[in-house]
Design a protein that fits this description.
Blueprint lengths: L34 H13 L1 H22 L4 E17 L2 E20 L4 H67 L5 H35 L34 H22 L5 E11 L8 H6 L2 E5 L6 H69 L4 H36 L8 H19 L1
Antiparallel strand pairs: 1-2, 2-3, 3-4
Pfam families: OEP (PF02321)
Family: Belongs to the outer membrane factor (OMF) (TC 1.B.17) family.
Subcellular location: Cell membrane
């Protein structure tokens, strides 16, 4: 009984735009030209408790595989017993008691012949579970790298927004000072002064709120890299400017490089093998069992080969399994296999959707970034002109505040657009199943653990 994952056919090219035909391996961080980001990613991969948990689950799967393999080997158990046998004899009104030591040795052995490869199916399922567990580890590693990179971008964006908030306070304070001077010279009224002071207070409130967001972004990143979250992590408040994604490649290649798809495929294999194992469990099984034991009052006789051989019993057991329980177990295993197939198809569709979304978003975000940059330049020129005109008394304070607001809003929106494009680029590589920087302590530790367990498995 075999189960194959079926999905919708992949198109020859991406609908939104292209993607490199070869998955980026270990170099996708280089496009950001940010050594600090790379260092934080490596620190997160080294210190993450989540990865430690995933690595432990991989080791547990490796142990489960060894357990499954042991089912094909004979099992032998032995026992040694020692006791006292007390007897009493009455003769002529006199009772004599005697106490003798009783010693026993027992040996039980059993071995199931895998006539229909039922045990072999269980071993295959365990090995597929191990592959799925390793894929889960790889997916968690890639996800952590992406989360750390995005958290770094968000921290820089928060600091950049904090810088805009500080500029807002400075601009509003400049207007307040200018308005108060004009009021003292009789060129402005009290309404202008109150308005200037109100906008300054609002800017100060926004500054406090932005500092709170910055602290939360810093603590989020510190938690990811395994540091105490005290919001002391420093960042330059710079967001990278990115080039466009090159259009080439085939969406079908995605199925061979995403860890979550590899894990889903391994689970399809495991579920199919378990369904086969449940079907084979309905067939007769052949088990060879043997037991030997002695019981003697002489300790040395307990290990006498002749006595053990005399008590040796060889038996063949061929139980026949009938009843609704085995039918239900088979039906449940088949249903689980069908669910695994459907989950694989869903995972593949989600993967294609994530890449298509990221590709389309990159195009729109690039256009948005360009437009916001032009809007900022025009807003700066308008603000300079408005400040000169307000000083000369040709426009009102509301015109000046409006010009300042447009400039500050444009600057804030440019930061948001650049940060969104950078985080979308990281999500794009996450959707592609892109590789990680090589040589990290996490990767080396996982490989070392895998090699150690593989060697142990070979000896067992």
């Amino acid at each position: 009984m075999e189960f194959f994952a079926e999905t919708v056919d992949a198109p020859a090219e991406w609908a939104a735009r292209g993607v490199a035909g070869v998955a980026p391996q270990g170099d996708w961080l280089s496009q950001f030209n940010d050594p600090l980001m790379v260092g934080l990613v490596n620190e997160a991969l080294t210190n993450s408790p989540t990865l430690e948990s995933r690595a432990a689950l991989v080791r547990a799967s490796e142990a489960a595989t060894r357990i499954a393999r042991s089912q094909r080997r004979p099992s032998i158990s032995g026992s040694v017993s020692a006791g006292v046998n007390s007897t009493s004899t009455t003769f002529g009104g006199t009772t004599d008691r005697s106490t003798d030591g009783v010693y026993g040795v027992g040996l039980d052995a059993s071995w199931e012949l895998d006539l229909w490869n039922r045990l072999g199916s269980g071993i295959g399922a365990a090995e597929a579970d191990l592959a799925a567990s390793q894929a889960d580890y790889d997916a968690a590693e890639l996800s952590l790298a992406a989360q750390t990179s995005i958290a770094w971008i968000n921290l820089n964006a928060a600091l950049a927004q904090e810088r805009v908030a500080a500029q807002t306070v400075e601009a509003r304070d400049r207007v307040r000072t200018l308005t108060e001077r004009r009021f003292q010279r009789g060129l402005a009224d009290a309404l202008d002064v109150r308005t200037a002071r109100s906008t300054l207070a609002q800017a100060e409130a926004s500054m406090a709120a932005q500092r709170q967001f910055t602290g939360e972004a810093a603590r989020r990143l510190e938690t990811l890299v395994g540091r105490y979250p005290n919001a002391e992590l420093q960042a330059p408040a710079e967001i990278p400017t990115l080039e466009a994604i090159m259009p080439e490649g085939n969406p079908a290649l995605l199925l061979s490089r995403r860890p979550d798809i590899a894990g889903a495929e391994a689970r399809v294999t495991a579920a199919g093998l378990r369904a086969e194992q449940a079907r084979l469990a309905m067939l007769p099984s052949l088990r060879l069992t043997a037991s030997a034991g002695t019981n003697t009052t002489d300790f040395a006789d307990a290990f006498d080969p002749e006595r053990i051989a005399a008590n040796l019993i060889a038996s063949l057991v061929q139980p026949l399994f009938t009843g609704g329980q085995l039918d239900a177990q088979r039906d449940a295993a088949v249903a689980q296999a069908e669910a695994a197939v459907a989950n694989y198809a869903s995972t593949a569709l989600d993967a294609w959707r994530e890449v298509e979304n990221a590709l389309a978003a990159d195009t729109f975000l690039a256009s948005q970034e360009d437009a916001q940059a032009r809007a900022l330049e025009e807003a700066r020129l308008a603000e300079d002109l408005a400040e000169r005109q307000y000083t000369s008394g040709t426009i009102t304070i509301f015109n000046l505040i409006d010009a300042q607001t447009r400039r500050l809003t444009a600057e804030s929106q440019l930061v948001t657009a650049r940060a969104s494009r950078a985080t979308n680029r990281i999500s794009y590589h996450l959707a592609l199943g892109g590789g990680l920087p090589t040589g990290t302590a996490s990767t080396q530790s996982a490989k070392s653990n895998s090699d150690t367990d593989a060697a142990r498995s070979g000896r067992s």
